[in-house]
Write a structure and sequence with these properties.
The structure holds 3 protein chains of 3 kinds. Chain A is mainly alpha-helical. Chain A contains 26 helices and 7 strands. In chain A, helix 3 crosses helix 20. Classes of the chains: A mainly alpha, B mainly alpha, C mainly alpha.
Chain lengths: 669, 219, 319
């Protein structure tokens, strides 16, 4: 049964209903989330049907351009992404059932753009021609722009939205240019024609298409150095929207890169793979390094998206490298690792954003320095956030571990490449991945520890209450998925292989057992690891109990160096926690600090001390600022033309027309 | 290649690889004593490699040279440098031009470069490796001189360059004409003595042995 | 029958490590004491400490949450599980099929993660300081550790610890080469950092500003402390075992013939003993590094591991 039109109609109707019901926030909210749940459910069913072999999930509408109408069709590769979008959308919508009530004064706008956003995001991978793709892509960008600027009273939201909008438009322009080259070659906007014409392009044009697409889609995915919008835009939106943006919207960039590089162009030379691998390595290390310096909980998570996109790109880049060396088995394993991490990141990152949303609602701030001790009042939220933190830190046996392990296996198998440059590249990437892993664990010890443990650092944190049931269900569902995706690598890998089949038609499919992940050079059974961990912990508990009897515990205050009573001000803060790393990477951060002391009349009892520290964002300062400055200087030069006199402007017009005419005369001869 | 059988290549490549490690150690130490010790260890390792060659052939002049190298470079020069350091009372390299992690990674880069450079020229694997290793050690010595300020470290850098030369000669031809090597040793003796005196002069003139102070001597 | 004996012998290996762990710690302490002209406690003292601590009442901070009570069990079980993945006396390990050396690295991150959280949980500045420093050291150590294990894996063509050890043990004297030496030194340096030994961290200090690992577990007492102490001595034993079996690969038994097994046991104990002596000498003869010199120290380990890899796998230089 063709469920795609029904799902799209559902979401579109939800958008309309919200606009009609804008007088009643409750009605608008219910309509929007009801439509979102139903629409996403239908979309998930459509994707599942497609992955099960039903090729009939399609939707064709007449478009304004006659020849190229709206045409959407699911193939297994797009179904993978559509399904992922719908799964996360389901969780975010369940969460929204209680969370969105905090936005009731803007319920209609939130609801309408939310449904539109979901619709557009699901249709991007489903698009079957360039026109529909770009239409859905722009709809996705615009609707998310309005969601980012929902709090438009805040200057920070407006600024984030503006940056997001400008960067996104630049990205779309690059994608447009890339499609234009393909269109010239194919003579049609249909993706089927692109697939035929792409591999036949001359090498230079092929590389141009690839580079334009990599830049355009990479911008959406948030790869360094095109990531600067991401850490500002994602946190500004309501948290369930942030979860969608960080969890799945940036993945449409990954979809686009794979679609262009493999689907349209049919693979390329080794340097493409090397470039993607390098971008991945740089993104992952810089992403996690900047995340460590954040004390805004949501922005910390947003920087981690940059990191994880880097890990995904490492897998894909290794795959492209192996493809170019004609090593189909290795390539397939590497692509599957990249896609696996795409799915995993979607799940744990949306979980973390939802958790951050609940914390934000409870405490009223995103600043971690004002949190603390939340585990006492919000134990369930804390547990879910802990699972997410462990997953993103790649601790076994959760899902992040599985995909990072597979990525490591792929990179390690690159050590057998014929080319020394290829071996060095994979080696460097593996070192970067190892560094990223260690730093990510440090960052999430900080995020979880400072937010949920020890003493509350503010009144609000002390009075926080547990999240409502809908929020907890959504988070618990995602946390459970983290565990399931972690211990059942076999079915997931089979799904990835099925998804990759349309892109890599000639590749042999690997055998995958259910509970084990088989890498090129080793295997891992995460379920056994989980069982053993639980078993050994239980055995240890039992053995201790048998030897020494039941635990005798006395509660006493923490030793506070002889001061009367521990206060939250004695605790390690987020800034303090990351200080060793700030100093270790001082060459990159170029930190500056300012210490101001008040009243120093008594040397042994100083008054208040103000301490502030700041780091420098190298890419923004060294790359963007100079180019913006150059642009402004150019604009300043051109400003001489703008004298304010109407006559002069008419003169420009006249001169332009005359010049054009002269040009035409020249052409005619 | 003559004499490249049995345990010899393995022993020589093992010892010379450790010599490479000691070059890296010299790059990574802050304390000048340790830098000099790293050089001493490197010289002893190379001397042992030469000794292995000499005993394997057997050739008395290589054996003698090996013992001379161990004694002179492994103990004599380090002793002299220790004495100089004691007199000028300098212990550590406080602020190098190039930071320690950066100089280590730069060292790895130089290793890659020299191996890439030697590969097309040398086809014979054992000699090629030796030449590449020698070149690497020379470059590392030079890199040490580039990155540090203290005159003592720079002298050690120069001595490491000489050791690199020794490796290259040893593994490409399994020998070095006696007279050339003796000449080299003598040159080193004169060189180190002159540099030692120079360190005294720098110290007494500028109250520091940072060579960047020498920029003040510009006319 | 032989298969049965093999399985039993395999499952005995992690238990052996568990039993040996306090002894290794005791020996290291005793040797250090001797080298410093002190008498030192008996080598069995860690066992008595352990048993005593298990029976003692636990004092728990009023601020602490369940994380603090769960952390010792998580830390112990993950460290002990790691022992099931490595070969000890025989080249086979009981759960080698379930996790390779990459999984081992991640598995060892699990105890650290929970201990660091528990360090923050009590709310004292010491715990936070310990956690923060420990995470910094471990994140600098991880690339070096991964590179070292890769250099062994590349040589054997497998990331499985058992397969690697078997391939190296079968190679005989021919595997002795620069790669092995470089890897050994690198892993030794990483082990010093990972296990909180001098010159990175001083396991004997309880001076406020110099603690790292000890600061992190400062608020634990009673059975929690016992489990954490056991986990950290187990981790040291695990690293020494890795050093002994991956980088001094001679003498391991492939099967369970009594003769080979006995030989392998003797060889293993000798290697372990030599490593403990080396450790004590290094710890006695070096001063603790300043915290911000630790990344440089681990940078050296990383570069050595990298050179080892370059020599064997990447450039096939053979140095």
């Amino acid at each position: 049964m063709n469920l795609l039109p029904a799902s799209a109609a559902c979401l579109a109707l939800g958008t309309l209903a919200c606009l009609l019901l804008r007088r009643s926030p409750v009605a608008a909210r219910s309509a929007s989330l009801g439509a979102a749940l139903l629409g996403s459910g239908l979309m998930l069913a459509a994707s599942a049907a497609c992955l099960a072999g039903d090729a009939g999930q399609a939707m064709v509408l007449p478009g304004p351009l006659g020849a190229a109408g709206f045409s959407f069709r699911l193939d297994p590769f797009s179904a993978l992404f559509c399904g992922l979008v719908s799964c996360i959308a389901l969780a975010a919508s369940v969460y929204g059932l209680s969370y969105a009530s905090g936005y009731d004064e803007k319920a209609a706008a939130l609801g309408a753009f939310y449904d539109l956003f979901l619709l557009a995001m699901a249709l991007v991978p489903a698009a079957d021609n360039a026109f529909s793709f770009l239409f859905a892509w722009e709809a996705m960008t615009l609707s998310s722009f309005f969601l980012v600027t929902l709090d438009h009273e805040k200057a920070s939201s407006r600024r984030a939205g503006y940056l997001y909008f400008v960067m996104s438009q630049a990205g779309t322009a690059l994608i447009f240019a890339s499609f234009l080259i393909l269109w010239r070659a194919a003579g049609s906007l249909e993706f089927a024609a692109f697939r035929l014409a792409g591999p036949a392009l001359p090498a230079g044009a092929k590389s141009a298409v690839f580079l334009l697409a990599l830049a355009g889609f990479g911008l959406k995915a948030g790869t360094v150095p095109l990531h600067i919008w991401l850490p500002y835009a994602h946190p500004a939106a309501p948290s369930h929207v942030s979860a969608l943006m960080s969890g799945v919207m940036i993945k449409t960039g990954i979809y686009g890169i794979l679609l262009t590089a493999l689907g349209f162009l049919g693979g390329g030379p080794a340097w493409w793979g090397g470039l993607v691998l390098g971008l991945g390595a740089v993104s992952s290390v810089l992403g996690v390094l900047y995340a460590l310096m954040e004390h805004d909980l949501k922005r910390l998570l947003a920087f981690h998206s940059v990191e994880n996109i880097g890990i995904i790109l490492m897998g894909l880049g290794a795959g492209m490298l192996f493809s170019s060396f004609e090593l189909p088995e290795l390539a397939l394993a590497a692509y599957a690792a990249g896609l696996y991490h795409t799915v995993n990141h979607a799940v744990f990152k949306s979980l973390l954003f939802l958790g951050a949303g609940s914390v934000l609602k409870a405490v009223g701030t995103r600043d971690m320095e004002k949190m603390g001790g939340l585990i006492k009042n919000m134990p369930a939220t804390a547990l879910c956030f802990l699972v997410g933190s462990m997953a993103i830190s790649a601790l076994p046996p959760l899902n992040g571990f599985m995909s990072e392990w597979l990525t490591f296996q792929s990179l390690l198998s690159g050590f057998g490449l014929e080319s020394a440059a290829g071996r060095l590249g994979t080696l460097t990437a593996a070192a970067c991945l190892a560094l990223t892993g260690g730093l990510a664990a440090a960052c999430f010890v900080k995020a979880f520890g400072v937010t949920f443990l020890a003493l509350p650092r503010s009144e609000e944190a002390l009075k926080a209450v547990e999240s409502p049931a809908f929020e907890l269900w959504a988070m618990a569902g995602l946390a459970g998925s983290c565990l399931l995706l972690g211990i059942m690598p076999g079915p997931v890998l089979r799904l990835m292989h099925a998804g990759l089949a349309p892109l890599l038609p000639a590749y042999p499919l690997a055998e995958t057992p259910d509970l084990a992940a088989v890498g090129i050079l080793g295997t891992v059974h995460p379920a056994v690891l989980l069982g053993m961990l639980a078993g050994l912990a239980a055995a240890a508990w039992l053995a201790v109990r048998l030897y020494a009897g039941p635990a005798r515990v006395r509660r006493a205050p923490t030793w506070a160096c002889g001061m009367p009573g521990l206060t939250p001000r004695m605790e390690y803060t987020s800034t303090a926690f990351s200080k060793p790393i700030r100093l270790m990477f001082a060459f990159l951060y170029k930190p500056s600090r300012e210490i101001r002391r008040e009243r120093m009349d008594q040397p042994y009892f100083p008054g208040a001390i103000h301490y502030s520290t700041e780091i420098t964002y190298v890419i923004r300062e060294r790359l963007y600022r100079p180019s913006v400055r150059t642009m402004l200087r150019g604009a300043h030069l051109v400003r001489g033309l703008q004298a304010g006199s109407v006559n002069l402007y008419l003169g420009y017009l006249c001169a332009t027309v005359t010049l054009l005419l002269i040009f035409l005369i020249g052409r005619a001869r | 290649m003559i004499g490249v059988q049995g345990w010899l290549p393995q022993a020589v490549s093992f010892l010379t690889a450790l010599a490479l490690v000691s070059a890296f150690a010299a790059l990574s130490f802050r304390t000048l004593h340790l830098v000099v010790r790293a050089y001493a260890a490197q010289s002893v390792l190379l001397g042992l490699a030469a000794l292995a060659v000499g005993l394997h052939k057997p050739a008395w002049h290589i054996t003698a040279l090996a013992l001379l190298t161990i004694g002179f470079k492994g103990f004599g020069i380090p002793w002299f440098l220790f004495k100089v350091m004691e007199d000028v009372k300098i212990r550590r390299e406080a602020a190098p031009f190039i930071g320690y992690p950066a100089s280590l990674l730069g060292g790895v880069g130089l290793t890659l470069v020299s191996y890439a450079a030697v590969r097309p020229v040398m086809t014979d694997s054992f000699a090629g490796r030796g030449l590449a290793l020698g070149l690497t050690i020379m470059l590392l010595g030079l890199w040490l001189m580039v990155g540090r300020k203290k005159a003592v470290t720079q002298v050690v850098g120069l001595l490491i360059v000489d050791n690199g030369l020794f490796v290259a000669a040893l593994s490409t031809s399994f020998s070095m004409p006696m007279i050339v090597e003796l000449g080299l040793l003598f040159d080193l003796l004169v060189g180190v003595t002159v540099l030692g005196l120079l360190i005294f002069r720098i110290q007494s003139t500028f109250a520091s042995i940072d060579t960047d102070r020498l920029t003040r001597l510009r006319g | 029958m032989n298969g049965c004996a093999m399985t039993a012998a395999c499952w005995f290996q992690p238990l052996l490590l568990l039993l040996l762990a306090p002894l290794i710690q005791g020996c290291a302490r005793k040797l250090k004491a001797c080298l410093q002209n002190r008498t030192g406690a008996s080598v069995l003292q860690p066992y008595w400490d352990l048993l005593k601590n298990l029976r003692k009442e636990e004092v728990l901070s009023e601020t602490a949450s369940p994380v603090m009570r769960a952390a010792p069990y998580a830390a112990f079980s993950a460290t002990f599980l790691a022992c099931f993945l490595v070969p000890v006396l025989f080249t086979a390990s009981p759960l080698g099929f379930a996790g390779d050396m990459i999984a081992l690295v991640y598995l060892l991150a699990l105890p650290r993660f929970f201990m660091a959280l528990a360090g923050l949980d009590a709310g004292s500045a010491f715990g936070g300081m310990g956690s923060s420093r420990e995470m910094m050291i471990s994140s600098a150590a991880e690339p070096a550790l991964v590179m070292v294990l890769f250099s062994a894996a590349v040589r054997a063509g497998s990331t499985g610890a058992s397969e690697t050890a078997a391939a190296l043990a079968a190679g005989g004297p021919s595997v002795l080469g620069p790669g092995l030496a470089l890897g050994f030194i690198a892993l030794f340096l990483v082990a010093l950092a990972e296990c909180g030994r001098l010159p990175v961290d001083n396991p004997a200090t309880h001076l406020e500003l110099t603690m790292v690992h000890e600061a992190m577990i400062l608020e634990h007492s009673g059975r929690s402390l016992a489990l954490l102490e056991l986990a950290s001595s187990l981790k040291l034993t695990l690293f020494l075992t890795l050093l002994a079996n991956l980088f001094i690969p001679w003498g391991m038994a492939g099967g369970t013939e009594p003769g080979a097994a006995a030989l392998s046991a003797v060889a293993f104990l000798l290697k372990l003993g030599a490593l403990v002596v080396t450790l004590s000498v290094v710890e006695t003869s070096t001063a603790k590094l300043r915290l911000f010199r630790v990344p440089d120290f681990l940078g050296i380990a990383f570069v050595l591991a990298l050179l080892g890899l370059l020599s064997e796998g990447i450039l096939r230089l053979g140095l």
